[in-house]
UniProtKB/TrEMBL annotation:
The record marks 291 as: Increases basicity of active site His. The keyword Lyase applies. The record marks 338 as: Transition state stabilizer. Homooctamer; tetramer of dimers. It comes from Vreelandella janggokensis. Binds 1 Mg(2+) ion per subunit. This is L-rhamnonate dehydratase.
């Protein structure tokens, strides 16, 4: 098995679908009015596509091994990611043994330090890394969670992200995280609307159901603190990504100033052990939320998670479907998982990466048994009906 090497890496782009902001069709809730750092510009307030949320599109990395096995992964990165893989990273991947994941990661990261570290470069490195874990699982005939040490519980439990926590409750989820709609530029009227939406949702779901607000980097410390204080009486469980990711000092202050018992969570736009070290050492939050397709892949998430554990913090990865499920089920400090409601009206459970992936497991009644993940690699296939394009063949 250790003789099996990577023969070829191929990087593709594909349009349409994909979780979170790959490229959703018009009218999807995820592209309705959501508070963002661009909401201060009325021209870019009503949809996230208006300021280009979908411009990157999806990157697909495929690895073919000398024994004929094929591993793959998808993330946000599109053409830029495809260029980086084919023109730069391929040299560190092809010819390596399928087990040399740590070495390939280190070479990719260090060779791109002069233009990388974060953003689309680390998304791309994440995608190659996930494809390597998928390939290793396929070569060995084992699911990725077994390669990571095996499940520590029999099932995953999920909260749902979307505008309808009331429906999420009926579908069996343990909580619902709504996107915040109005940012600071909409003043006190916007604040009142944000609070009244939460109040309405609290009446709809009753007392014990978790309700959270995802603020997608849109607030400042003052607004976020006032929102948290106003939301306390409606039992807001956590306030998420309230500030821009670089404002570690603001997060530390917010965490000190929110009402006792309310959690401050963040990290989906943070990357690598060094970025998370800042969040942890500066005591910026209660739960870190790395996205495994953006933070450096599984190889880096292992390190981030160990660091969080040593700081007594939980790790609840952002979205990302099977790529995070295989990790979460193996970690004691990841007690539940996120499910992004990708049905356009958030009224039913739809596979997160639909239509790109086949065999993608989804929670039933808010839960997923470990056995649903018992297929080699990440257990998913690329849908042959989604046309791939390979713009930069090397
Ligand atoms: C809806 C949110 O603003 C975002 O697109 C998803 C997200 O941040 C999350 O799932 O967390
Ligand atoms: Mg979020």
């Amino acid at each position: 098995m250790s003789e099996v090497t990577i023969k070829q890496v191929r990087a593709y782009t594909v349009r349409g679908g994909g979780a979170d902001y790959h490229d959703q069709a018009e009218g999807h809730w995820i592209d309705s009015q959501i508070a963002t750092p661009m909401s201060k510009y009325p021209d870019y307030r009503m949809t996230r596509r208006s300021f280009g949320l979908n411009v990157l599109g999806t990157l697909v990395v495929e690895l073919e091994a000398s024994d004929g096995s094929v591993g793959f992964a998808v993330t946000t990165g599109g053409e830029i990611g495809a260029w980086i893989v084919e023109k730069h990273l391929a040299r560190f991947i092809e010819g390596k043994q399928v087990t040399e994941i740590e070495k390939v990661w280190d070479q990719m990261f260090n060779a791109t330090l002069y233009y990388g570290r974060k953003g689309v470069v680390i998304n791309t490195i994440s995608c190659v890394d996930l494809a390597m874990w998928d390939l290793l699982g396929k070569v060995r005939g084992e699911p990725v969670h077994q390669l990571l040490g095996g499940p520590v519980r029999d099932e995953l439990t999920f909260y749902a992200t979307g505008p309808r926590p009331d429906l999420a409750k009926k579908l069996g989820f343990i909580g619902g995280k709504m996107p915040l709609v109005h940012g600071p530029a909409e003043g006190e009227e916007g604040m009142a609307r944000n609070l009244s939406k939460l109040a309405d949702m609290r009446s709809a779901v009753g007392e014990d159901f978790w309700l959270m607000y995802d603020c997608w980097m849109s607030l400042d410390v003052n607004y976020a603190t006032r929102l948290a204080q106003g939301a306390h009486e409606f039992g807001l469980k956590w306030i998420e990504e309230a500030l821009p990711p670089d404002d570690y000092w603001g997060y530390a202050q917010l965490k000190r100033d929110v009402p006792k018992g309310m959690l401050v969570n963040t990290g989906e736009h943070e990357a690598t052990r060094w970025g998370f070290r800042l969040l942890l050492e500066m005591d910026c939050c209660d739960i870190i939320q790395p996205d495994v397709g953006w933070c450096g892949g599984i190889t880096e998430l292992i390190k981030i998670s160990a660091l969080a554990d040593a700081h007594n913090k939980l790790v609840v990865p952002h979205g990302s479907s099977v790529y995070s499920y295989h990790f979460v089920i193996t970690r004691h400090n990841s007690p539940f998982a996120e499910f992004l409601m990708m049905a356009p009206n958030a009224d039913e459970v739809a596979p997160m990466f639909n239509p790109l992936l086949l065999d993608e497991p989804v929670p039933v009644n808010g839960r997923m048994s470990a056995s649903a993940l018992d297929k080699p690699g990440f257990g998913v296939r690329l849908n042959p009906e989604c046309p791939l394009s390979r713009p930069y063949e090397h």
